[in-house]
Specification:
The complex is a heterodimer of chains A (169) and B (197). With 169 residues, chain A is mainly beta. Chain A is 0% helix and 55% strand. A ten-stranded antiparallel β-barrel of chain A has the order 1-2-5-6-9-10-8-7-4-3. The two termini of chain A are 31 Å apart. By secondary structure, chain B is of the alpha+beta class. Chain B folds into two domains: 46 residues; 141 residues, lipopolysaccharide transport protein A fold. Helix content of chain B is 22%, strand content 49%. In chain B, strands 1, 2, 3, 4, 5, 6, 7, 8, 9, 10, 11, 12 and 13 form a 13-stranded antiparallel beta sheet that branches. The longest helix of chain B has 44 residues. Chain B is rod-shaped. Chain B starts with a helix and ends in a 5-residue tail after the last strand. The relative contact order of chain B is 0.09. The chains are: A mainly beta (169), B alpha+beta (197). At the A-B interface, strand 1 of A face strand 11 and strand 13 of B. Strand 1 of chain A pairs antiparallel with strand 13 of chain B. Chain B: It comes from Pseudoduganella guangdongensis. Chain B: Keywords: Cell inner membrane, Cell membrane, Membrane, Transmembrane, Transmembrane helix. Chain B: InterPro entries: LipoPS_assembly_LptC-rel (IPR010664), LPS_export_LptC (IPR052363), LptC (IPR026265). Chain B: This is LPS export ABC transporter periplasmic protein LptC. Chain B: GO terms for molecular function: glycolipid transfer activity; lipopolysaccharide transmembrane transporter activity.
């Protein structure tokens, strides 16, 4: 949601290590990041400060999956959810980059209407646009893995008694 | 003849009495001396301070002779029994490495373990100014233990910290000033404000 960009980022942690020299903050022991409607969970997180002063957060699933969930603008209860072994969140571009075994789902009114899986998925939470690549490095290489996209039918099948009429749109 | 024997016996007894008095006197003096020692021992046991300094300031030097810690305060009371000192309104300034000095204030402090441990109690506040590639640091807790020789500090009390523009809370903290690494433990929250666009 657009309003998220003006919200502070809150990260709950088990323990926190600050290396003032390298200006890196390491949070471990189960991490939950929230920023407005954006919520991410992971086992461990690195927070670095970019030269321009923006925060760059890397979340590691460490065996489990790091997850991400954010409300989408627009009418109705629109959400987007995703998980991957590693998620990077860049505060400046507000991009969520999910690496290796990533999946992203769009949810409407509590019902999932489509899901994409791939090695790398990047989601631009401002434009609500996501792209999938087939290698964990973020570029598509020939012979890399295959992504799959499942789009749920928007119309539910009428009960079997009535003959199924297929109109082409 | 009788008078001479009587006079002789009389002189003899006077001499005897004088010697007796001298002996008793020395016993009395010995007793006095011992009691004095006991008094000092008693003082020690009663934990009486042996010196009190008002408006003091100690400077601890590194081996190279550079000042590393300045410990000042309104009143310092030293107690010989365990060679410890109690400080009212301590002000500690730590000058380590290339970072700006770190100023630490508290209500009271205790220096013990042969001056290798300084325990600050009551509204402990740490402040370090910002500098190029060094973020400003503010930290508040109820107790802080500083080990000047190892240039590190720790607390097992809840801590509120502000580093640059981010704030963090935790239940305990260990910091190594030399390597400028800090560890906060115990389910805290790190708050990173949005960068002013």
């Amino acid at each position: 949601e657009k309003a998220d960009s003006y919200k502070p980022m809150l990260i709950d942690y088990g323990s926190l290590d600050i290396d003032d020299v390298k200006q890196v903050t390491i949070l471990s022991g189960g991490v939950k990041l929230t920023r407005g409607t954006l919520a991410m969970t992971a086992a461990r997180a690195y927070v670095k400060q970019t030269p321009e002063g923006f925060k760059h957060v890397t979340l590691f699933g460490d065996g489990k999956k790091a997850t991400f969930r954010q409300k989408r603008d627009g009418a109705g209860d629109l959400w987007v959810e995703g998980d991957a072994e590693r998620i990077e969140y860049d505060e400046q571009a507000e991009m969520v980059k999910m690496f290796s075994k990533a999946s992203i789902r769009r949810i409407e009114g509590g019902k999932q209407n489509d899901e994409v899986q791939g090695e790398f998925i990047s989601y631009d939470s401002r434009k609500e646009f996501f792209s999938v690549r087939n290698s964990a490095s973020g570029e598509s290489k020939p012979g890399g893995g295959r992504g799959t996209m499942v789009i749920q039918p928007s119309r539910t099948e009428p009960p079997a008694t009535a003959p199924a009429t297929q109109e082409k749109k | 003849m009788r008078n001479q024997r009587m006079a002789h016996r009389f002189r003899l007894s006077i001499g005897m009495i004088l010697v007796l008095l001298a002996a008793l006197g020395s016993f009395y003096l010995l007793e006095l001396m011992n009691r004095a020692d006991e008094d000092i021992q008693a003082d020690l046991k009663a934990n009486e301070p042996d010196y009190i300094i008002e408006k003091f300031s100690f400077v601890r030097m590194t081996k190279e002779g550079k000042p590393s810690y300045i410990i000042a305060g309104d009143k310092l009371t030293h107690r010989p029994i365990d060679d410890s000192s109690e400080i009212d309104k301590p002000r500690v300034r730590s000058l380590s490495g290339d970072t700006p000095p770190m100023d630490i204030l508290a209500n009271t402090a205790r220096v013990d373990e042969a001056n290798s441990r300084v325990t600050l109690n009551g509204q402990v506040k740490i402040d370090r100014a910002a500098a190029p590639n060094v973020q400003a640091l503010h930290l508040a807790t109820e107790k802080l233990v500083i080990f000047p020789d190892e240039d590190r500090m720790e607390t097992d009390q809840p801590v509120k910290m502000k580093l640059g523009d981010s704030t963090a809370t935790a239940n305990s903290m260990r910091a190594n000033n030399a390597t400028r690494q800090m560890r906060l433990e115990g389910n805290g929250t790190l708050m990173l404000p949005p960068r002013a666009q």
